Amino acid sequence: MPTVLRAIPDLATLPGPIYLAIGVFDGLHLGHRSVLLRALADARAGGGSAVAVTFDPHPAKILRPASAPRLLTASAHKVLLIKALGIQAILVIPFTARFAATAPADFVLGLHAACHPLREICVGHEWSFGRGRAGNLEMLRQMGDRLGFDEVGVPAVQVDGEIVSSTTIRAAVETGDLARAARLLGRDYSILGTVIRGDQLGRTLGFPTANLSAHNEQFPPNGVYAVTALWRDRPLKGVVNLGVRPTIGSATGERLLELHLLDFDQKIYGEYVEVTFRLCLRPEQKFSTLDALKAQIARDVAEARRVLS
After folding, report:
1. Based on the domain organization, do 154 and 211 belong to the same domain?
2. Which of 52, 93, 100, 209 would bridge 202 by S-S if both were Cys, CB 3.0 to 4.6 A apart?
């Protein structure tokens, strides 16, 4: 598993030369992957360490909280997804109001001082950074010439003529266009959550569920989904009900994510589970009785088995 660093000076603990891929990386979509994989390829060619540099929380949560986007991937989820790429280390910088006020040149100088040596900074071609977002690719180029590192601006990635962006993916997930979201992500959309204790109703109906406190903020529409899940690197299959449970109601009125894992009966409270949405089976609906609900859940489970087989 890659090393997770929490402060810029921690970069000094890594063997150089250092190749940095910097970005918010919300969603870790195909565009983000192109930045990360470029740094990784260059690090391998140069015999150095590739490091993903990202921020927590999303900068918009600090800079413009009223209009901040819903997260596709919180930090814990990003770490898991970046891990799968083979990146050696991940630096998660706490994004605070004080950090946001850092002059762009000072940010770069801090990175340069911590790396032994800094060989490359790889970003998206339109990336801006630092106080007032005054830093850009041209500044990186000028500072690189002076300090002895390369800058790489990776072009935008297009899929079927559409530029890949987190904004577009959020809209696709929100409207339930999971196929479009998957094309732009390069993977099916997934949610990472922590298993919490629920009201045990699923168990009384014969279909025990793991209630997930989701780290992501962007949900697809309410409904029942065939899903795959990853728990402790163990692949599982299941059915998710996402919504307000209109037949029995939600105590808080909030949307709940309830996961029934097929052929699985272990207590995993407090643990991470990543749920990947494969297919929407039906919209959420209200049933007249619990028996009718139970019968429909049985049909949902049977259909999920068929789909996931």
Report:
1. no
2. 209
